[in-house]
Write a structure and sequence with these properties.
It contains four helices and no strands. It is mainly α. The chain has one domain.
């Protein structure tokens, strides 16, 4: 059986984790803001990829519809749904910024500055 305490001696500073979230010098606020910012960025990228996929699949369905009006209408609805989803995603960012401005927090999407003011 291997002695595990010998393995820990190889790392005199201890285990700190992997990636930016494993940095022990960060405060909880910095870790939380990095997490929220990463989540918002990831969801925006997912929305854009979903729009591109919906646009391409709707265009392929429209080209293959031929003279079938029901298939053509279904493909048109698919493209319209994708476009509406993209507009809602982009409008949500502007709407949050507008609400922040109206309630007196001009940089509501700047989370590190916001949490520093709250502290």
């Amino acid at each position: 059986m291997k002695n595990l305490s010998a393995d820990f001696e190889l790392f005199p500073g201890g285990f700190k984790g992997i990636g930016p979230l494993g940095n022990p010098t960060d405060t909880g606020i910095n870790t939380f803001t990095k997490f929220i910012s990463s989540t918002i960025g990831l969801l925006t990228i997912v929305a854009i990829i979903w729009f591109v996929f919906t646009l391409i699949s709707g265009a392929i369905a429209m080209m293959s519809a031929g003279s079938d009006k029901a298939s053509l209408e279904s493909a048109r609805k698919k493209i319209t749904t994708g476009l509406i989803g993209l507009v809602v995603t982009i409008a949500a960012i502007f709407l949050i910024d507008l609400i922040g401005y109206l309630i007196g927090i001009p940089n509501i999407l700047d989370l590190p500055a916001l949490f520093t003011k709250i502290q």
